[in-house]
Write a structure and sequence with these properties.
Layout (H helix, E strand, L loop, with lengths): L15 H4 L9 H11 L5 E4 L6 H13 L17 E5 L3 H15 L8 E4 L16 E4 L1 H13 L9 E6 L10 H15 L13 E6 L5 H9 L4 E4 L2
Parallel strand pairs: 1-6, 1-7, 2-4, 2-5, 3-4, 5-6
Helix pairs in contact: 2-3, 5-6
């Protein structure tokens, strides 16, 4: 897909306080094509696009869409810590640690003041209560599955009720042997979103965003994950 620069969405289309998240002036073709779905909508989204096409930027636009709820009419950012949680799920610790460094710089104390926390097997000392004030939780499917199952088994929602956005990287792993844990957490989030006692919580309106470079059955995945699909995009 070839875009002229006139067709590309400028970063200046975002509120000024969010523009510093990006180090470039224009979103690329994939990001521009998905801009309305990612930033101007709360719809669930599945995107299949090649490696290096800017899928992380789509995640960041979805994060900013959520954070835009906290902007005042004057453009000031009022951030109650941990009130709107984002969960990023990826298959490897290396990918998670890379995103922690990247997003701590982009969204952390030197910019928007969000707290990013890695939750993997490398930091077993983290307790559920430690996640109450966390804004972006970065975790593996297996670790997040066990953590959220503990909340449910103990008869309380804990931090889970504050989850407003679930970002799934490399979603094609649903077809892998490790796909069971990923399927379990998506199903659990959907189930909790329907709980009457959580109808006033963020999770009742949770948004799912999934990306991959290789999703052969993207329409089927969108039908299951998004139920019904809101936006399914494939870029070759």
């Amino acid at each position: 897909m070839n875009f002229h620069q006139d067709s590309l969405v400028p970063v200046s289309a975002l509120p000024q306080i969010f523009q510093g998240v990006f180090s470039f002036r224009f979103f690329n073709s994939v990001q521009s094509e998905c801009f309305s779905s990612a930033y101007l909508s709360d719809d669930n989204l599945v995107v299949s696009a090649p490696t290096g096409s800017g899928k992380t930027g789509l995640f960041e636009l979805c994060i900013l869409r959520l954070l835009s709820r906290l902007l005042s009419p004057e453009g000031l950012f009022n951030h109650p810590r941990g009130a709107l949680k984002i969960v990023y799920v990826a298959p490897t610790k290396a990918l998670i640690q890379e995103k922690v460094r990247e997003w701590d710089e982009k969204f952390g104390s030197r910019s928007l003041g969000l707290i990013c926390r890695e939750v993997t097997g490398d930091n077993e000392s983290i307790q559920v209560k430690d996640l109450q004030d966390t804004d972006i939780i970065l975790t593996t499917p297996e670790k997040f599955d066990s953590t959220t199952r503990r909340c449910r088994d103990h008869g309380r929602a804990g931090f889970v009720g504050d989850i407003a956005l679930l970002l799934i990287d490399e979603v094609h792993l649903l077809n892998d042997t490790r796909g069971a844990a990923l399927e379990a957490i998506v199903s659990r989030m959907k189930m909790l979103a329907r709980y009457p006692e959580l109808k006033e919580s963020c999770i009742s309106r949770i948004r799912f965003v999934a990306v991959s470079a290789t999703i052969p059955n993207i329409e089927d995945l969108g039908e299951w994950l998004l139920a019904p699909p809101r936006a399914v995009k494939r870029f070759c």
